[in-house]
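Report of the visiting student (M.T.), summer placement. My assignment was to run the structure pipeline on a short list of targets and document each run. The first record concerns Glycosyltransferase subfamily 4-like N-terminal domain-containing protein.
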Amino acid sequence: MTPPFSVAIVHYHLHRGGVTRVIHTASRCLTELGIRHVILSGEPDESGASLPVRVIEGLRYHTDPGGPQARQLVKEMRAAVADALGPAPVVWHFHNHSLGRNTVIADVVAQLAEASEAMVLQFHDLAEDGRPINYPVIADAELLYPHSPRIKHAFLNSRDRRHFLAAGLPAEHSVLLPNAITPPATVKPLEKKADSALVLYPVRGIRRKNLGELFLLAALSPKGTRYAVSLAPDAERWMAVYDEWRAFATDTGLPVLLDVVERLSPGPRAPKTFASWLRHSTHCITTSVAEGFGLGFLEPVTLGKPLLGRNLPAVTNDFSEAGIVPGRLYDRLLVPVEWVGRETLRQRLIRSLRTTLESYDQPMSNEHLERSFAAMLHDGHLDFGNLPEDLQRQVIHRLLAGDGTDKILVEIRAETQPARAWLRRTLKLTEPTAKPGDLLPYSTDTYGSRLKKLYAELIQEKPTAPEEVPKHKILAGYLKPGSFHFLLS
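After the run finished, the structure tokens were exported:
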């Protein structure tokens, strides 16, 4: 029986990446469930998949003054949905409406909310969470986070949901909606075991992926170990930082290969494709300092690849609750504070923290400064992942000059050990810490069932005037003193 509603999925674009994969998966799930739907995107689907996409240019990234008006954009969206789906009641499913990548999307959502439309507002990333460049675009939105029985806020992880509940969002107007896990490519095992480790970081090399940590690990790894990052950033704002790491790789000769897919081959006569790099890799890695859901922690499990790298409790705690150990992970990668200098770090913190807070139109208090500085100090060490890139390179140069290799430590559950010894042991382990069957809570069947239940509940609710989660409370939750991170500034 066809459900008595249809769905309009809304996003800025359908470029390759995490959100697009989520939308693709949702579309396939809805098709299998017989739920009629359309995807409204500001740009065509670059994957070429046969999905029900309608392009509405006003939805694309647009952060400069001018451009489409919200009322006109709502009119175009309604017309596209009616043309594609007919007159059935619609649930609108927005992805990242508050990210600050379009000047009118927040107003579009507000108008639909005031019209008592059924909506899902799903957050993959938040402008308040380490994206100070984005926030001014949404700072003046009158109704940024509307909620009602007909509007659910959908979160990828429990940490973000807790922030919104603390700011006043009723629990019944929220839902945890983790992504479905599907293998990123089909991988046929190599016929011959590799002689040395090839560690793949299957991401775009944007700033929060913390590429400097790969170089430090490469300097500590056994001879012959290679590290590879699959793709370069696709946004101009990240290219300067990425190019600095590209130059650093050339200058130091460290075995870190960047933007390898379709550019380099992982082995003699091997294709340059992503699938080929996955096939030839012995391990996957993550050094990211911030994620919304954390696909990179679970996707290696589907490929039978062991994962190592940096733990992010904000996302991995949910996996632990589901009984999944995603990889062999450290909580911190510690370097001696004297390799950077306390006063050098403090002065950099003052400048960066003030600039970041000003982007959010917030003053820098002494409490912000002192608690942020104290949070960076760990018994005579600093966490390498929370250093600006030039100071990361300074640390690596000291290491390459022979300045105390075993002074670099990994911290795992409050216990420390030399990072070089931990790496040597970890790279010898070729079995994942979880099995594909452990991922049942994140299967596409489970995901489709969650979507169907969510949409059906919303469409049955009576029209109700929306209320608002105070946006200043959301911002305060993410900017609390002590939370500053250089790579998210």
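The chain has two domains: 6-180+443-483, 198-437. The mean pLDDT is 95. I thank the supervising group for their guidance throughout the placement.
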